[in-house]
Amino acid sequence: MTTTALVHVVVSGLATGSIYALVAISLVIIYNATRTLNFAQGEMLMISTFVGWSAHAALRLPLPLVLVVAVAAAAGLGWLVERLIIRHAIAATHFDVLIITLGLSLVLRAAAGLVWTHDEFPFPSFFGGRPVVLGPVRVAPVSLGIIGGSLGLMLALAALFRWTRLGRAMRAVAQNQRAARLMGVSVERVYSASWVLAAVVGAIAGVLIAPVIFLSSKMGLVAINGFTAAVLGGFGSLPGAVVGGMLLGVLENLAPLWLPAGIKHSVPFLLMIAILVLRPSGMLGRVRQRKV
Amino acid sequence: MRTLLTTVLALLAVLGVSPVDAQTPGVTDVEILLGGSNSFSGPLAFTGEQMTKFGVDLYFRVVNDGGGIHGRKVRTIYYDDGYKPQEAVANTRKLVEQDRVFALIVPQGSPPVVATLGYVETQRVPMLFPYQSSPVTRGKKYVFQGMTVSDRSSRMMVDHLAGQRKHKRFAAIYQDDEYGKSFLTAFEKDLGRHGLALLAAESVKRGVTDVSAQIAKLQAAKPEVLFLVLVPGPAAQALKERQKIGWKDVLMVSTGPLTDERYLALAGDAAEGVEGLSLWPDPVTSDLPGVKRYREHMAKYFPKNEPNRYSIAGYFAGILFTAAAQRAGRTLTRDSLIASLEGLKGFDSGILPPLTMAPDHETQKQGFWVRVEKGRFTQVTDWLKSE
Amino acid sequence: MRRAALGAGSALLLLWPFLVPRYFVFLTSLVVVNAIVAIGLNLLSGYTNQLSFGHAGFFAVGAYVAAVLTLRAPGVPVVATLVLAGLATALVGLALGIPCLRLEGLYLAMATLAFGFVVVEAIQNLDWLTRGNDGVAVPTAHLGPLALASDAAKYYLVLGVGALMVAAAVNITRTRTGRALLAIRESEIAAQASGVHLAAYRTLAFAVSAFYTGVAGGLFAFVVGFISPDAFDVFLSVDFVAMIIIGGLGSIPGSVVGAAVITLLYDWLAAFQNYRPLLFGLILIGCMLFMPGGIASRMPKWTQQAQ
């Protein structure tokens, strides 16, 4: 294995890792607000990307506008799901909400199949696929583009959480819901905003990754890797989600290089079990262990 | 308490009546009933829907509008198994025991098909043209294989590349399941006949997001030929990955089940120069009379559905069933259908080369070589031999 | 009322193969198999609040142990095979459960989810033992001189084992152990304060739950007659979770009803082809929105076990 090839494999892993990170972030945003897991995150990402693609196919929209359409669709979908379904189950247990989002993921995937068929479609990319030579290494612009785009989005999110009123409210709710309510934060607004924001992050991830893994009703399955990434980083921690995603992407690519065939596909899951057992709060999560 | 007893009694009354085996199941004076368990959800949902509703049913609509088979119309029922073996078993039993279908048609995928083989043999229900490529269906009296079996595909591919074109260095990237593994075994055997072996083989999981590591490892083995034993998505990813790293001195070759326009569309210009074994004539451009009729029928009944290799496979299954049922005559039984299918000799569908079913129960035994030029498959050889 | 209902129900179950077509006998066997899993999962989730998304993994272990054992040692009676399948799975359950003791809720769900994937990978890669992706055609089970080949024979096997498992579960919930588990369900802190050794009981619940699921996996192998790694994907684990949540957490009758509902829904919805997941998903959402306590919360009083 040459160094050039190794660098390429790592960069490629960082690119898919950025997508896992974005999905993990969107899961964590909802988790922090409502303490529930959104199993339909991947399918919401898929639907928004499909809507953007349909706009592209029907109106010949340029790619930046496709992204806008996808984001708008995601925002609408996130808002609707929260308002029409999740809010009615607010008294239910976490398990119930889990099943609801699970049902939702089935519904959305089946609906996508009925509207767009279960076929796979090529998706236009902002970035080219042919390699560029950077000194001693070659990298694909599409990988760099995905990494750059994701990092930009992460910075924007960090700014939003740090400096805006909404971001502060969301952090307050994540820390202590009752205290936040007493301080005058509208928890319901934060719920809504979290679902919308998570869906939007998902849609951007979808538009970035669709040229690589193609657009199809099953592309939402990428969310499983998002779960793993979020756990690796420590569920609830946004920086953890980023690190977990990147780490997962790179490891997933390095494992087939050196490990025997029998074990290489299990690496992400063995890693997840190991992290949970040794350090349940993840790499960057706050330690919240139980005593037994 | 009384309501409970009444309920129980009512249940007994409803369910206690067992059906009487008077005649051949699924055949009445006016109708032949066929059924199949297939994927309408899960990884093969697209293939399943195209093959059944836009393939088999397309041909039966033509047949029914033309008066049916000896005056009987053909009706079909399909159940979704989502590629799960246990659901395929449940569906198949429901079709045979409850719906009492005459025969099973185009079930899809190795795990679901294999799970039901034992049952259909003991029940003596014809299983017509299962769409999967592993050789497990061989030697079964009631099973007529649909897709070209992997060992035949492999023999045609290896004989062409190692025999005729004298390539020496081979490697493979394969899907980590029954489909991938059955091809891998066959490649090793056939390369062995030529005194060669696979230099490297890398597996890919279904639903993979990145194949860069596998391609990097394969490149390091320096093969002249790389077999792609994948499904459209990952295969197109592999082609794009090769473009990304600028790997030029290798011939990418797709297996029969993969050689398909969809994967060309996904790969875009990364597919240029790729070769492969084609099991079907090009459904969109071929001038063969059967393919032209297929396109006309598709345009008439399903104008919005694009012609593709899955629907033509189902359409072909419809042609074969109809031909055999016609030959079997007005008194159609499961055994007379089997006899009639086995008796097909030099049958010309206008789509595939003339077909003789005996003695192997295989409906597709040949393919031809293609190369991708300007985004379409161009035929390079005539039908290759797989015997 | 309760006794009469039980009597009528038992009579109906015993006579069932003579009353209905074979297919329904087969379907009922599947319902019972799933009910055993649901009870096992409910002992874990409903009583000690540990949600698992990896029960398809336990189910697979049980199924493969039973299948491979029957292939390699055809003389072993089916009861012993099933017990061994259950014990082997319980061991696997302990191996997973002990390190995961500190995990709760979501974290445990994630660890078990990963476990499910690892089991499927292991089955695919241990070709020499499991035949990998080719799958295993499961030979007929034998009970002494009897070959359990027909649907009815398999049904009676499943029903017998199922009845034992239900009775055992009901009894567990009534013993000291059961009261301890119930105490944990109501409040872990209060339970600990009353001297319940939390770690011990949570581990026990894990092992018992895995045992139930392993036995059910063994029965599944015999009933379906063929197993392959594709049978045990994460969606199967999800189905098991759906069974206990729809049926009712912490309720044994609820587990049985939930298993029946999900199994029959699958059968019924298969005919809707590509509308099937859509309808299934809508039904799940509807159940949760309009019946958050599960079906058990709406069942008549006399069906509830004495607590």
Derived from helix and strand composition plus strand pairing, the structural class of chain A reads mainly alpha
CATH class of chain A: Mainly Alpha
Q: How many domain units of chain A?
A: 1
Could you please say which CATH topology of chain A applies here? Answer: ABC transporter involved in vitamin B12 uptake, BtuC
Order of helices and strands of chain B: HEHEHEHEEHEHEHEHEHEHHHEE
The CATH architecture of chain A can be given as Orthogonal Bundle
Work out the helix count of chain A. 12
Number of helical regions of chain B? 12
For the report, how would you describe the main beta sheet of chain A?
2 strands, antiparallel
Uncertain segments of chain A of ≥5 residues (pLDDT<50)? 287-292
Overall pLDDT confidence of chain A: 89
Derived structural class of chain B: alpha/beta
Notes on the protein architecture:
The complex is a heterotrimer of chains A (292), B (387) and C (307). Chain A has 292 residues and is mainly alpha-helical. Chain A has helices at 3-34, 41-59, 63-84, 94-116, 141-163, 165-175, 177-182, 187-213, 223-233, 238-258, 261-264, 267-278, and strands spanning 132-134, 137-139. Chain A has one domain (3-278): ABC transporter involved in vitamin B12 uptake, BtuC. Mean pLDDT of chain A is 89; it is low at 287-292. Chain B is an alpha/beta fold. Chain B contains 12 helices and 12 strands. Chain B has helices at residues 2-15, 45-65, 85-98, 110-123, 150-164, 178-193, 212-220, 232-245, 261-267, 289-301, 309-328, 334-342, and strands spanning 31-38, 73-80, 103-105, 127-128, 143-144, 170-175, 198-204, 225-229, 251-254, 275-278, 368-373, 376-379. In chain B, helix 3 (85-98) packs parallel to helix 4 (110-123) and helix 8 (232-245) packs parallel to helix 9. Chain B starts with a helix and ends in an 8-residue tail after the last strand. Chain C has 307 residues and is mainly alpha-helical. Chain C has a domain at 26-232. Chain C contains 13 helices and 4 strands. The relative contact order of chain C is 0.19. Classes of the chains: A mainly alpha (292), B alpha/beta (387), C mainly alpha (307). The interface between A and C is large, with 49 and 47 residues.
